[in-house]
Design brief:
Elements: H1 2-30, H2 50-54, H3 82-86, E1 93-99, H4 102-113, H5 120-130, H6 132-137, E2 140-143, H7 148-154, H8 158-170, E3 179-181, H9 193-200, E4 204-206, H10 210-214, E5 218-226, H11 230-241, E6 246-254
Parallel strand pairs: 1-6, 2-5, 5-6
Antiparallel strand pairs: 3-4
Helix pairs in contact: 5-8
The structure holds zinc ion (ZN).
The site of zinc ion has 8 residues, from α2.
């Protein structure tokens, strides 16, 4: 196999970006599919191996109807968690595919910081499965925006990538410049609720024609991970002011406070 791989690499060098892409397609066809996280052999291209799947802590029903956090025991439909009753979120319903641990945490981190844009389709498929009830009611998708400076450094917004993939799977349109980020915010972890709110105050605003494009809509806000919920709450406040009729939030992973931390 080595001479073939060397040949393909050589051809890629000679052919520039198009050559590299074509060589990768040929290699994908000839070589067995690999796990997107650990490169072990897999059944399907673009998927995870059995060991990485075992690390995925999926969130299943029963969940808190507002926060989407899992319950250990099924108390029946429409149950709220103590956290949702003590501190009701600004959004109507939140859902996430997985707990933010193990392979899920690695996927989030590699999409965000590792330039692994190829992970977005897999992550979006899992988000669509977990978010079925809220996506069925939605009229538009709104990704959490990045501040311009951060977007310039990272070159892409991971939330917008996920929203675009979810749009492809559901047919829901993405409205990605109606909400703008006016400033970057320091991490929320370890802050109490009033401090988190102060931290996020003024972080988001509605873009020039945002109100026109959002008024009356049932919005699903898309992000990669929900930690304290402060970012998504701040987005929900602004979207509500802009006239959105319903605001749900969908993330790939969720920090529930009970993650095993591998
Ligand atoms: Zn793997």
């Amino acid at each position: 196999m080595m001479p073939l791989v060397s040949f393909l690499q050589g051809a890629a060098c000679r052919g520039g970006q198009i050559g590299r892409l074509a060589a990768r397609r040929v290699a994908d066809f000839i070589l067995p599919p690999q796990c997107v996280l650990c490169q072990a052999a897999t059944a399907d291209p673009g998927g995870l191996c059995a060991a990485c799947w075992r690390e995925m802590a999926f969130i299943h029903d029963p969940v808190c109807q507002r926060l989407g956090t899992p319950f250990a025991v099924d108390f029946g439909a429409d149950m709220l968690s103590p956290a949702a009753m003590a501190e009701p979120p600004a959004f109507d319903r939140g859902r996430a595919a997985l707990r933010h641990a193990g392979a899920a945490r690695k996927l989030v981190s590699r999409l965000k910081y590792g330039e692994r844009l190829d992970l977005a389709p897999l992550m979006a498929r899992l988000m669509v499965a977990a978010g079925r009830p809220i996506l069925a009611d939605a009229t538009v998708l709104v990704p959490v925006p990045l501040h311009r400076g951060r977007l310039w450094r990272r070159r892409y917004n991971q939330a917008a990538l996920l929203a675009r993939e979810i749009s492809r799977l559901t047919g829901l349109p993405v409205v990605d410049d109606a909400l703008v980020r006016r400033r970057s915010t320091p991490p929320q972890v370890g802050l109490r609720r009033p401090e988190r709110q102060a931290n996020m105050a003024g972080a988001f605003a509605i873009g020039p024609d945002g109100a026109q494009r959002l008024a009356g809509h049932r919005v699903v806000v898309i992000d990669d991970v929900r930690t304290t919920g402060a970012t998504l709450n701040a987005c929900a406040h602004i979207l509500r002011k802009a006239g959105a009729r319903r605001i749900d939030v969908l993330t790939f992973s969720l920090v529930t406070g009970s993650e095993a931390l591998p």
